[in-house]
Design goal:
heterodimer; A: 164 residues; alpha+beta; Alpha-Beta Plaits; 3-stranded mixed beta sheet; 3-stranded antiparallel beta sheet; 6 helices; 6 strands; 18% strand; B: 556 residues; Ubiquitin-like (UB roll); Rossmann fold; 7-stranded mixed beta sheet; 5-stranded mixed beta sheet; 23 strands; elongated
Chain lengths: 164, 556
């Protein structure tokens, strides 16, 4: 195999590298005095916008009940089959409510289709991105973890309404 | 017979048929809410409007008789325009509560709205408010807002159930349905109104909110409530039976079934008392053991016992296959003592569907050989002989004989060896030495024969431990298809049970009589070979709607 010829041999000036090292150091020095872009996570938390798709949560109304009527559309549309619902009957005006609502966070792919299909605006994507678990059982979020007061979800709800 | 032109195609009709019936026979569905094939025509929903040439105005297909040479257009511009207008009127006062409504997914109004409506409402005024959550009777709930006043339920009560209970009250947009003063919707067929309601106005209190239609699988099977053998669909979610719904069969039950059959016949399948795994009595208590151990203990117990000292009790609730294998085993053990109990409640029948004989397969079990043989004992004789210790070993298949008569329970106390195949623990298993878990009618393939001598197939809808939904060819819902056993919905309870015929085949194998049957169909084929009445009948021939034996007799 023939030896490939270099396009151009380095000059002596280039070969000693010292000027390049100095150039690099000067860039480093310049950046030391510029404002920082990185975040000192977890000491500093990232606060996403309303458009962010974190884990899906259920809206808890001000009267203390869930907004969800357990129609099952989110469970039907979910491409990863993460949602399982069992409906039940209540005395509230909307006579149907989820007795059981479980999202398997190991299956969830954060696509937001559940939120899009929901006729009641009852399931929305939150800003919560801290989802670490050590057991499979912990990854199944029940109503205890899913229900979030409506006041905390205003950003997202406004974002959704701006696209309707 | 004449011919009409339907959407440009020539179609036959019988004299007296309406356009909608002629179209249905030709495979064309004209949209309809109030029309039902077996109810009278009321013609009030107006959605079946079609254009008939040479008629000045559009005509409703359900009330216009077809006549020779008629030219009918179901999809002309005028007809479509009219249908859209009717849909708009129907939707004016219909609430948009499909997410809450149980009918969603099998709702005629939903379907036709997708097909024929303009997609948005021009109605800006307030919708009417009617009574919601009205309990019309013990089993049926009524939602006034959803009702489109088609009067199917009223006509069903008048014409099929024969009890005038429901009626319209008020007029115009305030019209609603109620029961007559002092009456309830409590006829024995009341739940059929839920099936025929084209919207979700009438819902079953039992199945309300339990599952979405698209989350369930449905299997064609037969009701076990009486010897009518109504054709049913069994709807299952997460391996649990949610509801039974009648399936159309013109020769048996038409479109209907009774409330008792619908509500009470499947409860034992998921009951607490199910036998899970084989049990053998040790130190006075039934202990769970392996199948090999349990079967081995039976065969070693029976070895060397004279056939005269063994008796068999079959069951009119078990399939022909089960009873056939039982009688075969009796023959191979040289026993002539084989019989089964009867469950006839005189006077309980009506002239609609309900029969006096409360078992689904008494004719079939007899045909399969569960009748006392020549010189053999019948049920009373067997139990008397048990008490006199002339019979030492008793086989009981899917029966609770101790419950039938106190003398029977008394006799069972003294039996030397009692072997019971049962789906649930009951008063007979309390005396049993070995209890083997029998699969219920919802978990096995098999054949029943109803009072008309009509063979009908039951199919598994619920899985047992050694079954697999896809490998055993069961109906599957979306969750069954895509779930894994690690998902919560796939991780349901499965009972360790086997069909009775299979238990008996395995037992016969241990006792030297090698029966080579691997599935119910092979058992049936063998029965068809040996039982004269069944000659030539196969599972394929029975099919979805059954096979009447008397018909064959005419053909031969």
């Amino acid at each position: 195999m023939a030896k490939k010829k270099r396009m151009k041999d380095l000059t002596l000036w280039e070969r000693i590298y010292l000027p390049e090292v100095a150039k690099g150091l000067s860039i480093t020095l310049q950046n030391m005095f510029r404002p920082a872009f990185t975040m000192e996570y977890p000491e500093v938390k990232f606060m996403p916008q309303g458009s962010y798709r974190g884990r899906p949560v259920l809206v808890l109304e001000e009267h203390g009940g869930e907004r969800c009527v357990a129609c099952g559309l989110c469970s039907r549309v979910c491409p990863a089959l993460a949602i399982e619902i069992q409906a039940g009957e209540t005395d509230r005006e909307k006579e149907r409510y989820p007795e059981k609502f479980e999202i398997n966070m190991l299956r969830c792919i954060f696509c937001g289709l559940c939120e899009e299909v929901c006729p009641e605006e009852a399931i929305v994507m939150s800003k919560d991105y801290e989802l670490a678990f050590t057991k499979r059982e912990d990854a199944i979020y029940g109503k205890d973890k899913l229900l979030v007061p409506v006041a905390e979800l205003q950003d997202r709800i406004e974002f959704l309404r701006s696209f309707k | 017979m004449g011919k009409i032109v339907l959407d440009g195609n020539e179609v036959d009709f019988k004299q007296g048929q309406t356009i909608i019936e002629a179209a249905k026979d030709a495979g064309v569905e004209i949209p309809h809410f109030c029309w039902h094939p077996s109810l009278s025509v009321s013609g009030n929903c107006r959605v079946c409007l079609v254009e008939v040439e040479k008629m000045p105005k559009l005509a409703i297909a359900c009330a216009t008789q077809a006549s020779e040479g008629m030219v009918v257009n179901t999809n002309s511009g005028k007809a479509l325009e009219a249908r859209r207008a009717v849909m708009e009127f129907l939707l004016i006062n219909h609430p948009l509560d499909c997410p809450i409504c149980d009918e969603a997914g099998e709702c005629k109004l939903q379907d036709y709205t997708y097909d024929h409506s303009i997609g948005e409402s021009r109605f800006t005024e307030t919708k009417t408010n009617k009574d919601k959550r009205v309990q019309l009777g013990p089993h049926v709930m009524f939602d006034g807002d959803r009702c489109i006043s088609c009067s199917r339920c009223i006509r069903f009560c008048d014409e099929i159930a024969g009890e005038t209970e429901l009626t319209f009250v008020k007029r115009g947009d305030r019209v609603t349905i109620t029961t007559f003063p002092g009456k309830e919707l409590d006829n024995p067929y009341s739940l059929n109104v839920v099936d025929i309601c084209p919207v979700g106005a009438l819902t079953s209190r039992d199945a309300r909110f339990r599952a979405r239609v698209w989350d369930m699988s449905h299997t064609n099977t037969i009701c076990n409530g009486c010897s009518r053998g109504c054709n049913t669909e069994m709807w299952v979610r997460s391996n649990e039976i949610v509801r039974l719904v009648p399936r159309f069969n013109p020769d048996v039950n038409s479109y209907w079934m009774c409330d008792n059959g619908r509500l009470n016949t499947f409860r034992f399948v998921n009951a607490e008392s199910r036998v899970d795994g084989p049990h053998v009595r040790r130190e006075g208590k039934l202990t769970k053991v392996t199948w090999d151990e349990a079967l081995g203990s039976i065969s070693s117990e029976i070895k060397g016992i004279n056939g005269k000292e063994i008796a068999f009790i079959g069951s009119p609730f078990a399939t022909i296959e089960d009873n056939y294998i039982l009688s075969k085993l009796a023959k191979s053990l040289h026993s002539k003592n084989i019989d089964m109990p009867e469950y006839i409640i005189p006077g309980s029948a009506d002239d609609i569907l309900i029969r006096e004989d409360k078992t689904p397969n008494s004719t079939g079990a007899k045909l399969a050989g569960v009748v006392p043989q020549k010189d053999g004992l019948n049920l009373d004789g067997i139990m008397k002989a048990v008490k006199e210790k002339k019979i030492r070993v008793l086989f009981v298949m899917e029966e609770d004989i101790a419950l039938l008569k106190p003398e029977y329970a008394e006799a069972l106390k003294t039996i030397e060896f009692l072997f019971v195949m049962a789906s649930n623990f009951n008063s007979t298993t309390e005396f049993a030495n070995v209890v083997l878990p029998a699969a219920t009618y919802a978990e096995k393939n098999g054949t029943w024969m109803n009072f008309q001598k009509r063979l009908q197939r039951i199919r598994p809808a619920v899985t047992t431990l050694d079954m697999d939904r896809s490998l055993d060819g069961l109906e599957m819902s979306r969750l069954d298809k895509f779930g894994t056993k690690w998902d919560r919905w796939g991780n349901y309870k499965k009972y360790d049970a086997r069909p009775s015929w299979r238990i008996l085949v395995e037992l016969a194998g241990l006792m030297g009589d090698k029966m080579k049957f691997r599935m119910a169909e092979e058992v049936f084929d063998d029965a068809a070979k040996h039982i004269e009445e069944l000659h030539g009948v196969t599972y394929d021939e029975i099919g979805e709607s059954g096979f009447e034996l008397t018909k064959k007799a005419v053909k031969v």
